[in-house]
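User: Batch of two.

Assistant: Item 1 of 2:
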Amino acid sequence: MPRLHEDSTPPGRATLRDVARLSGVSPKTAARAINGEANVRAETREKVLTAAASLRFRPNRMARELRQGAQSSAVGLVVGGLENPFYSNVAAGLAHALRGHGLELIIATTADDPEHERAVVQTMLERRVRALIMLPASTEHAYLDGERQQGTSIVFVDRPSPAVATDTVLIDNRGGVRQALRSLLAHGHQRIAAVADIQDLYTARERVLAFSEMMEDVRTSGVTGLVRTGVHDVQAAYEATLDLLRGPSPPTAILSLNNRISLGALKAMYELRSQNALIGFDDFDLADVLGVSVVAYDSAELGRRAAEIALSRMALGPGTPKRIIIPTELVLRGSGERPPVTTLEDHESNPYGARPAGRRENRSGSPALSGCYPESLSLGLSGWGTARTTSNRPLAKEIAMTTTPDQPLRDEDMETTGVSGGVSGIDADGTDADGTDANGTDGDATDTVDGDASDADGTDSNATDG
């Protein structure tokens, strides 16, 4: 670093050594003066504080904690990527819950890459975070067990770890799928396709299992369930939906099992002018405007509940791992209530074209907008109603069905016929009956880090998003 003069500032962020050099004292004396320790003369303290102010020096609290062996004030959050609204909503809920507790939230992103996840987790642990909140990209977390035993609070969100016993906050994935299926069956659909993500992901696997189990469990002749898995992004969902709807026996309803898949399915349905029913798992922006029925849940609540557990562990110490289940809600906006159509020829010639501008009455009697957005957004709104929920409303009649054998199970495209196992204790509200407790428990600053460890020598640590 170049030699400092009283009227100069360093080209980068000032360090404690810069302050010491400018004030003419040792770094140790400068640190004592800045920290307000008693054994520093008043004139020396004034000189150091003046130098610190002129250099715009900010003490590195994290480095100080590491040197002094004090407890960290940082909580780490590891997520796939903040461009996904699900992850950003979880982060927002966590940050809000930590506010007022004197804690910093450090966020690292992994792009759902297991190797990068381990790197950023190691960086978090090197910074001695007091709690680690993870939306994991992998299932290999045995390396965290030692950290947990040493007192670091570790909470998994959305996906549990089979390798380490930790607190977990999950969505009611199976209950949400059953809610959607009951609604589609009640509207007369007998060929239903589920489009799902790669089966390495816990949420995708749980949702497919719920779909398959319900098709096996309810048993009435003529009903067939088709599962297409390995669909990881919008483009893949678009292609999978085109393939399903153009096939020789297209489904009359599609259940898209995450928000990215819903967007791809909508694109394909718009291109084909499809009138098929659609229910998506996960709400998303403009779903209400487009009239898309969804299985919704409060993603920010996942973050809030994770924060509650972490704060409790920090205050009271380790305990028996908790599992919290966040309930889902079926929001019917019109797309999921469409009656069955069997071929593309049965669809309206142009259900997505412009309609007269203004307000119209939907089936529920409440006003709905029509003709006020461009055609590119008019994704099958014709005949779709406004939002209403049916999460606790029992079906008007009992539904029973059996699956029809069609073809062997495959990961990419499997029929749900012949799937072993059944669903027990399915209640009308779509919740599990497995005895899982669904009740909750009893930092203002936000930073981002990558996989590189930061220094603890008094320099400020500026890290980038992972």
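Item 2 of 2:
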Amino acid sequence: MFLEDNLEVMVEKVGSEIVTLLEDKSQDIKKTLSKVKTRLAPYHQSKKPNSSKASKKKIVNAAEHSLGSPCERPQVSDESTTISRPKMSEMNLLDLSPLKSLAYSLFDHATSYDKKHSNFVDKAHKDKKMELLSNAKERLELFRIEEGEKGKHVSSNKKSLRKVKRKLETLQGE
């Protein structure tokens, strides 16, 4: 029920905006818009609309004005109930330079954000790599020190073992 109410409100708003834009046009166009407005309201139902060509209406924007205007006159044809949009080359309705500059600005900001984010990620990755390398160097130094101590201990054990062997040989020789 909530969706149906919202849909009806949206259709009424769109219909009223179209009517206010075209209120200086002929009475025929107002009748057509009211037909389109009443046809759009029940689209939330599961029933399919009548598909015969005679029952369908199509609103097509006519390109009668060479410069174009926001209030172009729609024409009615008997093909479908969709509202077709004119090609951009036919429209020439708006000065798109502010929109283009806004889009370029948006993409520039997105690119700079991506670069900053990428630099941050790269820096964090390098920092992590440097941390791992420093940890590995510390462990290597500790291993070398430990190995040196063990080597000294082994060499002292070898010396003491040699002394014991000499004493044993001297005792056996006596």
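Confidence is low (pLDDT under 50) at residues 39-47, 53-70.
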